[in-house]
């Protein structure tokens, strides 16, 4: 799996989420990026069912079950600060069977979908992040296809992101910190999406003036 950066782009002053997405994709098209289909990443939150916590005073754990259209045969299960398991698509059926242990917090389902763009060796996905019926934010995923070692290509990635993200170019993702010179994997991308989705969820809990 090639090295990927996933980040959030704030909504432009006086614009809607959709208009900001259009501004970003127009910049990509001006650079010469070509549309290549669509993508979707989704995330459902499960919390440990009350019955399993018992009386030991443990707090319930959250587990995120995620899908990414780039990996249609896989399902990713991530624990908040813990491992990311990669399972096959039947995992969803298993989660239904485990409902005595894990309960789906349906109101928390969040997803990002949008258009994929190819530009030279980069694959860019600009997504609208939605929770329920409303758009909550914007995600930008940039993949540098030839490289599998994060540290080898971060500068290249950053330089390219600056060309269309300007001062919203992200810093180095926290998952890179633990990778150093090891090979980047799809799980690392999913951890970045989980962090982004959680950030957007938290922003929703704080009413901000002028948000639409």
TrEMBL record:
Molecular function, one GO term: transcription coactivator activity
Keyword line: Activator, Nucleus, Transcription, Transcription regulation
One GO CC annotation: mediator complex
Main location group: nucleus
Superkingdom as given in the UniProt entry: Eukaryota
Biological processes, Gene Ontology terms: regulation of transcription by RNA polymerase II
Record has Metal-binding as a keyword: no
Cellular compartments annotated: Nucleus
InterPro entries: Mediator_Med20 (IPR013921)
Keyword Oxidoreductase: no
Self-association state and partner proteins as the record states: Component of the Mediator complex.
Described purpose of this protein according to its UniProt entry: Component of the Mediator complex, a coactivator involved in the regulated transcription of nearly all RNA polymerase II-dependent genes. Mediator functions as a bridge to convey information from gene-specific regulatory proteins to the basal RNA polymerase II transcription machinery. Mediator is recruited to promoters by direct interactions with regulatory proteins and serves as a scaffold for the assembly of a functional preinitiation complex with RNA polymerase II and the general transcription factors.
Family listed: Belongs to the Mediator complex subunit 20 family.
Full protein name: Mediator of RNA polymerase II transcription subunit 20
Organism: Chroicocephalus maculipennis
